[in-house]
Design goal:
heterodimer; A: mainly alpha; 2 domains; 9 helices; 0% strand; B: alpha+beta; Alpha-D-Glucose-1,6-Bisphosphate, Chain A, domain 4; 4 domains; 7-stranded antiparallel β-sheet; 5-stranded antiparallel β-sheet; 31% helix; 35% strand
Chain lengths: 298, 483
């Protein structure tokens, strides 16, 4: 197969993944809608879960297949460009979506995350949709500044951190939503299936605590690379500045939890703010920002 | 009775305690994050001085006010420095006393069990004996202390060590950064292919030594630029590879070495490194007066304006009477359209063209005011001609002629001495190690007390990491299995 064949294959696989994620999203919606309706009709407090469990199972399987297709698409893209597919914003987006989906699946082996399927599939659809329509660039070699083995180390640790930050943000978001419901009164029959507030709180903290050293490493490996490529390890480039801000916000979050004993609502908000600074860095600085990290290819 | 007087010492002690409290450190940390935002919004002098100048041109009054608050020099501003210095002091004041405290704590026995165990975490009751519980705790490498009918056990002492290691390493990083700015230097020089760069202060286009860096200590290396090749993608015009071939000498009397420099492969001379930072073109021109005498000859570096290396430049001939200046543009691959006029459509030298507008009058080079080498102040000058040249062509104007002989590439060499960077790196690595230890080691206590033939067991997770209840559950199960 020629390089352009691999590139086309990668694009096709992205479309397949998009279709499958959409299908998975619809099944999750069906599951949610059905249990809500059943709740209204039956009147009593018990749900017939046999139908919703089945559609959830379908949704999970389709989600898994979609992620497999996405992973193959990322690999094919890498083969077509003969390098790690992290050279521009399109590649960063599809690899980021893959990381998020894989983190969701792998962490789902230990904790039950299937209740997060609906928001996760929406997020992935949004990322992939934006990538293929707005950010797409043909497969091409790297610019000289990116020709370094640090690309693999720095960018993949940054992207892995990003995927898990996004997951912890989703959990914190779910916490805040359920917290609002609980403050108004009892949880609805649908929300009762979701994990307790306490376990959501714990989960988002554990995700951050797990990934914070990796994010620190991403920033430091970036500094080592910048020293080799640009002659300084830290120059307050907009992207560096926002990576620093993200680091500080997550450091404050961990501090606030461990030493100041923050929990629950306050901690969830801080987690969301910290995660948003990562997203801001990714979207705003890449597309509209200036500075030396201008590799989006846009 | 009068209220106790608040003396200066107690006031200072109060302020010190406030500054070094965890709360203040946290607030300062958040403030540092917020304070670094404006630097990503407004152009910064250290990174893009040209954009700052544009800002001043577009809105002089607004820019003046922004400048008063150091918004174009955020990371060197007094308020930014104030925040990180306070954070630094707060960190030292917070971490050092804690290290002493925990250092003593490490050799202490775990504290005695609280009177009511059932209010602690993971409280359970087991029919096992105290001796067996002790054996279990010992086997699982808890440190234990026994008093009468109760045992206190603790494990995971390393956690606090990791925490301290992390914070102390941050101090090392900050000292490394400070060391670089005081004892280091950085400078830039534009060198045409074929020329030689000797590392002396006068050969730099700009040079920023640290406060305690003496210019005499510049290492005496030389770099001869032999060849520079840039390869571009034909379709996208994107750069694929830059390669610079040089011959270097560590000092004036040492032997010559041939080396290759790339964007990610700088040259190293001891603690000084030389980076390939930018490249462009220098048209080779000869200017003659009306008698045919050569008044200027050589390559003139032009400043690239876009990725296709459309460049602007100035050829200044102060030796002619009247003085002559050429405000010029250079296009490596000349193209034309209605919107942009002349421009370059490819960064390689496929169809090089030099555009000149000739000015006569006063170049103002004797005022002592530093001038841009790429621009000419034409306020007191008069334009006497306008022409475009291809290689080999000449143009005659009122008082002389100019010949466009050819083009050589130039490279921008960035010379950096950064003696603190190793410390910053070591500090960063230690910080990650400390972080991993403090985030993943669970420090916890388990208390066991014999009450009426049964054992009451409970514990405390000191850094709130989950897992203690499972551990106590496992302990009770294993104590039961041993029966």
């Amino acid at each position: 197969m020629s390089q352009s064949d691999w590139a086309y294959l990668s694009n096709d696989l992205i479309y397949v993944a998009l279709a499958l994620y959409a299908l998975s999203f619809l099944s999750y919606t069906y599951e949610t809608a059905f249990s809500l309706r059943a709740n209204k009709i039956s009147g009593d407090k018990h749900l017939d879960r046999s139908i919703t469990t089945k559609s959830r199972k379908v949704a999970s399987i389709v989600f898994f297949l979609a992620t497999a297709s996405l992973t193959l698409a990322v690999i094919a893209r890498g083969i077509s460009a003969e390098r790690i597919p992290l050279g521009n914003m399109y590649e960063y987006s599809i690899t980021g979506a893959m990381t998020f989906a894989l983190a969701y699946l792998i962490i789902g082996l230990k904790y039950d995350l299937s209740w997060l399927g609906l928001p996760s599939s929406i997020l992935i659809l949004l990322i992939l949709g934006t990538a293929i329509t707005l950010l797409y660039r043909p497969s091409a070699p790297l610019v000289p500044a990116l020709q370094s083995s640090w690309l693999v180390i720095h960018v993949s640790s940054a992207i892995l951190s990003g995927g898990i930050f996004l997951l912890s943000n989703t959990v914190a978001g779910a916490y805040l939503w359920l917290d609002r419901i609980e403050r108004k009164g009892e949880r609805s029959e649908f929300a009762k299936r979701l994990p307790s507030l306490e376990s959501l709180d714990q989960l988002s903290y554990r995700l951050v605590a797990f990934v914070f050293p990796l994010w620190t490493f991403a920033v430091i490996s970036g500094a080592i690379w910048a020293e080799a490529a640009w002659g300084r390890y830290w120059g307050w480039d907009p992207k560096e500045t926002w990576a620093f801000i993200t680091w500080i916000l997550y450091a404050s979050y961990l501090h606030a939890r461990v030493t100041a004993g923050w929990k629950g609502r306050k901690a969830a908000w801080l987690c969301l703010i910290a995660g948003s600074s990562y997203l801001f860095n990714y979207v705003y600085i890449n597309v509209w920002g200036s500075g030396r990290h201008t590799y989006s290819g846009l | 009775m009068s209220a106790p007087e608040l003396g200066t010492t107690s006031l200072l002690r109060y302020l010190w305690r406030q500054l070094t409290s965890m709360r203040t450190a946290l607030i300062l940390l958040l403030l540092l994050g917020i304070a670094s935002i404006p630097g990503s919004i407004f152009p910064q002098r250290t990174q893009s001085p040209l954009k700052v100048r544009e800002y001043f041109d577009d809105d002089p009054n607004g820019a003046k006010w922004l400048d008063r608050f150091y918004l174009f020099d955020v990371y060197g501003s007094p308020w930014f420095s104030a925040i990180y210095l306070l954070l630094f002091v707060s960190l030292v004041g917070c971490v050092l006393p804690r290290s002493f405290h925990y250092f003593k704590e490490i050799f202490k026995a775990p504290p005695e069990a609280p009177s009511l165990l059932n209010t602690m975490e993971g409280f359970q009751v087991s029919p096992a004996s105290l001796e067996r519980a002790e054996a279990w705790l010992k086997k699982n490498r808890f440190r234990i202390s026994k008093t009468g009918k109760s045992i206190a056990a603790e494990k995971g002492y390393l956690r606090e060590t990791g925490n301290l290691l992390f914070h102390l390493s941050l101090i090392v990083v900050l000292l490394g950064i400070a060391g670089s700015s005081v004892f280091g230097m950085r400078g830039e020089a534009i060198v045409n292919v074929g020329e030689r760069f000797i590392n002396t202060p006068t050969n730099y286009d700009n040079l920023t030594p640290g406060r305690l860096f003496s210019l005499e200590s510049l290492p005496t290396f030389t770099i001869r630029v032999n060849n520079f090749s840039a390869i571009y993608d034909r379709q996208t015009t994107q750069a694929l590879d830059y390669e610079l071939k040089v011959t270097t000498k560590d000092s004036l009397d040492s032997s010559e070495v041939n080396q290759i420099v790339k964007v990610n492969k700088p040259l190293t001379f001891g603690s000084t490194r030389v980076y390939l930072q930018a490249n462009g073109y220098s048209p080779l021109v000869t200017v003659r007066d009306s008698a045919g005498l050569v008044k200027f000859e050589g390559p003139v570096p032009f400043l690239p304006q876009d990725s296709n290396l459309s460049s602007i430049g100035a050829i200044k001939v102060p030796d002619m009477d009247p003085q002559i200046g050429f405000v010029s543009s250079f296009f490596p691959t000349a193209a034309r359209d209605e919107v942009r006029g002349g421009f370059s459509s490819f960064p390689e030298l496929l169809d090089p063209r030099l555009l000149l507008s000739v000015w006569k009058g006063d170049l103002k080079m004797d005022d002592g005011v530093p001038q841009s080498i790429y621009r000419i102040d034409t306020t007191d000058m008069e334009r006497i001609g306008l022409w475009a040249l291809s290689i080999g062509e000449s143009y005659s104007f009122e008082v002389g002629s100019i010949t466009f002989n050819g083009v050589v590439p130039w490279v921008n060499l960035q010379v950096v001495r950064d003696p603190g960077k190793q410390y910053a790196l070591i500090g960063s690595i230690l910080a990650i190690v400390g972080l991993l230890i403090s985030l993943f080691i669970r420090q916890r206590r388990i208390w066991v007390r014999e009450v009426g033939g049964n054992l009451e067991i409970a514990g405390l997770a000191l850094n709130k990491l989950p897992g203690l209840e499972d551990e106590i559950g496992k302990m009770i199960q294993e104590l039961g299995d041993q029966k």
